[in-house]
Structures are given as structure tokens and as C-alpha cells.
Design goal:
8 helices, 266 residues, 3-stranded antiparallel β-sheet
């Protein structure tokens, strides 16, 4: 009996049911049934966590293959947004993250196991660098989702379409949360790059150069966004556009070459 297939199937079904529960009542006068959604999310996240624990930890190694990393990133983002949903209305974000997490759990069933160089658990500095990088990536992707929500609310308010935003938090509240998340994510990304620069011999190696350069460019853009907001009052579509650019560069840095290496050239 393949417990990974069973776990992925349970996670996929629960994620999809949670997504449908939100979308079916997204514009309902009373909004989605959050209790029902979160119960389904808890089932999905539990199965998802069980799967990732089996995928990552095998004897004395940590397996950082690309599918595993994507699964872990989606899990962290899902848990974070679900916890935020307990206090803040994030109805636009929940179906996106639940839908993606569910689809990826389904994909994991059919992806052939890829051989990757395992990361030995005793390499503490490298583990710290990778962990901080993944945390930063998760936080900054959440910030990108928030930027979309800010742009959506702002557009609907300009068009005086109050019905579309009645079940969403106030614009200023979401915008404040966006920049708080951006600050935290940027600090984590900076710490990750600093550890790599100071302690990792292969940080500027030829095979890692594109990752390093793209990550540093993304970091610079995030810093520019924050400086522009707090010094020049940047907000709205300019922040959204720059956030998308930075997140795209960070995604290419983290996953671009690994996708080519593990799938296209395997």
C-alpha cells in the first residue's frame, strides 16, 4: 500500500472541496462558511504535512528535489494564509492557495521520482541558508498575493463596485499588511544571501552564478519597493508590477535551473 498516494489523494480532495466551498459563496451576502472551509483545510494540511515528512526525511539525509521543495513551499504558504484567515478576511487568496496546493498534490502522484543530490543533515550552514531562502520565498509570494488583493480592492473602489469588496478587509488594512509582509520577507532574503556570501564557498561558483545574480536583483527590487513606498508613497499598480517582477526573478533563481536539470535533462 502506497501511503504517499493515499495521503496525496486525501489532500487533493480536501483542498478541492475547500476551494469549491469558498468559490461557491464568494459573493454570497454572508460570505463563505469559514468554519467549513477551515475544517477541510485542516484535513488537507494534515495529509500534506504527513506526505512532506516522508518525502524530505529519509534515513540520515534531507531530500531537496524540486517537486519536494514546491510541495513544501505550497504547504508553508497554505498554513500561513489559513492562520491569517482566522483574523482577517482573505477570501480572494484562499481559493488560489488551496487550489494550487491541491493540484500539486495530485501532480505528485504522477511525477516520476527524480534523482537529486541529497543534502546531508550535518551541513548546518547550507541547511540554514536554504531554509531562510525558502522562508523568504514563501513570505514574498504571500506578499505578491496581497499585492493582487490590494490592486483588486482598489480597482473595485474606483469603479464604485462596493458589492465586490463587501466581504474583503479595508484597503488601508490590506496595504499595511502587504508592506509588513514585504519587510519581513526582504529581511529573510537578505539574511539568506548574507549567509551565502560569507560562509558558502560555492556562492559565486559558475554553476550557481545565475541563481546568485537573480536573487540579488530580486532583493534589490524588493528594497526599492519598500524605499519607494516609505519615502515616495508608492502604492497600487506600481508596487504590484514591481512585486511581480521581483517574485518572478526569485522563482527563476530558485526553480528555473532545477526544473531543466531534474526534468528536461533527466
Amino acid at each position: 500500500m502506497d501511503f504517499l498516494v493515499i495521503g496525496s489523494s486525501i489532500a487533493f480532495i480536501a483542498y478541492m472541496l475547500a476551494t469549491l466551498a469558498i468559490l461557491s459563496r464568494l459573493f454570497h451576502p454572508k460570505g463563505p462558511n469559514l468554519s467549513q472551509v477551515l475544517v477541510l483545510a485542516i484535513i488537507a494540511v494534515t495529509a500534506h504535512t504527513f506526505n512532506d515528512a516522508q518525502l524530505f526525511f529519509n534515513q540520515d539525509i534531507i531530500n531537496f528535489s524540486l517537486p519536494n521543495v514546491i510541495s513544501l513551499v505550497s504547504l508553508v504558504i497554505t498554513i500561513a494564509i489559513s492562520l491569517i484567515a482566522l483574523r482577517v478576511k482573505v477570501n480572494l487568496l484562499l481559493p488560489v492557495i488551496y487550489g494550487f496546493a491541491g493540484i500539486w498534490q495530485l501532480v505528485m502522484i504522477f511525477i516520476p521520482k527524480t534523482e537529486s543530490i541529497p543534502l546531508l543533515a550535518e551541513k548546518i550552514i547550507l541547511v540554514g541558508h536554504i531554509s531562510l531562502a525558502l522562508i523568504a520565498y514563501c513570505i514574498l509570494i504571500i506578499a505578491t498575493l496581497y499585492a493582487f488583493q490590494v490592486a483588486y480592492i482598489n480597482l473595485k473602489l474606483k469603479n464604485k463596485n462596493l458589492t465586490a469588496v463587501v466581504h474583503l478587509p479595508p484597503l488601508m488594512q490590506v496595504e499595511k499588511q502587504l508592506f509588513t509582509i514585504l519587510i519581513i520577507g526582504t529581511l529573510c532574503l537578505f539574511a539568506s544571501q548574507l549567509i551565502g556570501l560569507l560562509f558558502l564557498d560555492g556562492f559565486w561558483a559558475k554553476e550557481n552564478l545565475h541563481k546568485t545574480v537573480l536573487s540579488l536583483i530580486a532583493l534589490a527590487i524588493y528594497i526599492i519597493i519598500l524605499a519607494g513606498h516609505f519615502q515616495q508613497g508608492w502604492r497600487g499598480h506600481r508596487v504590484l508590477l514591481l512585486t511581480i517582477v521581483a517574485s518572478t526573478l526569485l522563482t527563476l533563481s530558485y526553480f528555473g535551473s532545477r526544473f531543466v536539470k531534474e526534468f528536461m535533462l533527466s
